[in-house]
Amino acid sequence: MTDVISAPTLATSALALLTISNPIGSLPIFLNLTKDFDRARQRRIGILVGLAVFAVLTVSLLAGKLILEGFGIDLTSFRIAGNLLVASIGWAMLTAKANVVTVADNQSPVVVPLAIPLIAGPGAISLVITFAENYPSLIDLAAGVLVNLGVAIVIAVALFFAPQVARVVKPTGMSIVTRIFGLLLLSIAIQSILGALSDAFPVLTS
């Protein structure tokens, strides 16, 4: 008999997913990618990123494990590879490299890199896949979808108002914020990599 998720556990899962997705830490990259867009397009992209994050997390919740198994990839390997990419972005932010993240002129930044891997990254995806493994009933999965929706709404709202944040903070402040969140992003990625390595090589932590 499978466990049924409790309300406190569901709230904890929602908080953990929101923390890992870290929409506030993605604001500097969002603003860098959309700095040449008018306000209406920036806001539209923010909403689309929220929708893309919801789609990615929900697909991961319902079919993520099957997709990884179909490609012969285990969750630990996925976490290591994905967080290496996130770590490279965090390092670029920390060292204030020009064009921390870029896309081609004809490419939308909505899905890559904003939705994946910055917000709905390997940590968030692995979290929802683990949730689905622990609570596989239809009711629990429906609750997980609602959690994904709530997190996506928070992300869309944060990005929607990113231009206002930029006006308040100013370029110098955004430079400082970019470095701070670059360090946090790098730290989160390294911590996730170490956790994945511990799962892959438990003898190292015994």
What can you see in these coordinates?
With 206 residues, the protein is mainly α. Helix content is 77%, strand content 0%. The chain has eight helices and no strands. α3 packs across α6. The longest helix has 39 residues. It starts with 6 loop residues before the first helix and ends in a 6-residue tail after the last helix. 36% of the residues are buried.
Topology:
Elements: H1 7-21, H2 27-33, H3 39-70, H4 75-94, H5 110-119, H6 122-134, H7 138-160, H8 162-200
Helix pairs in contact: 1-6, 1-7, 2-8, 3-5, 3-6, 3-7, 4-8
| Major sheet description | none
Number of helices: 8
**Unreliable stretches, pLDDT < 50, 5 or more residues?**
none
| Oligomerization state | single chain
N- and C-termini, Cα separation? 31 Å
Number of strands: 0
Note the beta-strand portion.
under 5%
Cα Rg = 17 Å
